[in-house]
């Protein structure tokens, strides 16, 4: 045992020297930062090594520990051993850990920092990636899977984290790309840097591959811990709950809601402030904060119960829906449904973003994914229209027709097929044309028709009459109504018999 400990200590000493020189932590240091203190039990410590020759083991550390006193499976690639490359031994260790996590029904967190497939292992290394992908898909929707990219992740290896639920990347050291800069230059002639090709900022702001941009390793691991706080251990485990007592500050926040939202539907406001005035302690954990900012998704607690939140953001492109917003919100709703986390939808949407760019980008097929996610969901769905909801965008944002369990609107909400200006341009075309021909004041007529249309059609009353809304609520009652709705829906059961499972497919 002393000999084994000596080998381990020597290996960690070498790893520390190499990683700290790069301003990075070792695999075991990262695991210690992620988990509760002294809770890690390593599995297959010396697998792939040769103790007799003083070789400690494979380029990955695997085991089970605890986060917030809940069991979690974790593996960390060790860049200090063969550049963290994956060969037969590493693949076997990872797959064995994933199988154990599925057996125990506990989340998996992967800490990735690797040079890719080990060239010396040839096709064996490639086949190990395939086995990891297959096991990841088997686990999808059954146990939460979080990937934390702390260094390079290139080639076929990128599809491993892409198949998981959440990807966290560190700002300075994380990279993800299918083909590296050298290959790109050789094949296309394009001279591109690591950051421009697959850096953390690119994948957070532009591609949407990543879900959080971490300032450093500590921030990345802390975000992974925070996410797991809001998630059940598996798709049949209870939703996380905490003891909660409403405070005077909470009541004051609820009363102040109406002051946050301007009466004019054309004036922007920050939906994040609305969310913080509704949820417990004002705490909200955003997912994909930097990607497609016109839609907000993330986790919070409401009356001590974990919930997912989807909301339009009027501060970004007026909160319109486009291809990226649709896919971002759709996948989030699908994830929440897979793990039975209730979804609160806060609506203030003028419609879909118009234009040839959106049509050419596939708004029809990609926008349909948001519809599919809501319509397929069996988790509790509660929706509130704050200010406006027009046309198809009204339908897709958790409407009653798509399966919303409880749907409400604030008194001044504008719910219609079109806004007044757009509607009058169509329905009042003849009257406006005749007025112009007679030399009458066309703008005065346009304003009159717009006011009539707004009075008769742009309001929540027809929706209430037809049962598409369950009520019109005062802004200050929003939190209370949401809490009461979730309490009522606690016993909601799927119409499907037995355990229902679906994966959280990439979109």
Description:
Residues 10-21 have a biased composition (Basic and acidic residues). Keywords: Ligase. It holds the Pfam family Carboxyl_trans. The chain is of the alpha/beta class and 507 residues long. The chain has helices at residues 2-21, 27-34, 88-104, 123-139, 159-162, 181-188, 194-198, 200-206, 217-229, 248-255, 257-260, 271-278, 323-338, 356-360, 363-376, 391-396, 420-427, 429-438, 442-457, 461-465, 478-488; strands at 41-42, 60-67, 70-77, 108-112, 145-149, 152-154, 166-170, 175-177, 212-214, 284-287, 295-302, 305-312, 343-349, 381-390, 406-409, 414-416, 471-472. Strands 10, 11, 12, 13, 14, 15, 16 and 17 form an eight-stranded mixed beta sheet that branches. The two termini are 49 Å apart. The model has no long low-confidence stretch (mean pLDDT 88).
What's the quick description here?
41% of the residues lie in helices and 17% in strands.
Mean pLDDT: 88
Distance between the termini: 49 Å
Number of strands: 17
Largest sheet: 8 strands, mixed
Indicate the proportion of strand residues.
Answer: 15-25%
Helical segment tally? 21
Helix percent band: 40-55%
Query: Radius of gyration from the CA trace?
Result: 26 Å
Supply the helix-strand structural class. Answer: alpha/beta
Question: What brief labels describe this structure?
Answer:
507 residues, alpha/beta, eight-stranded mixed β-sheet, seven-stranded mixed β-sheet, globular
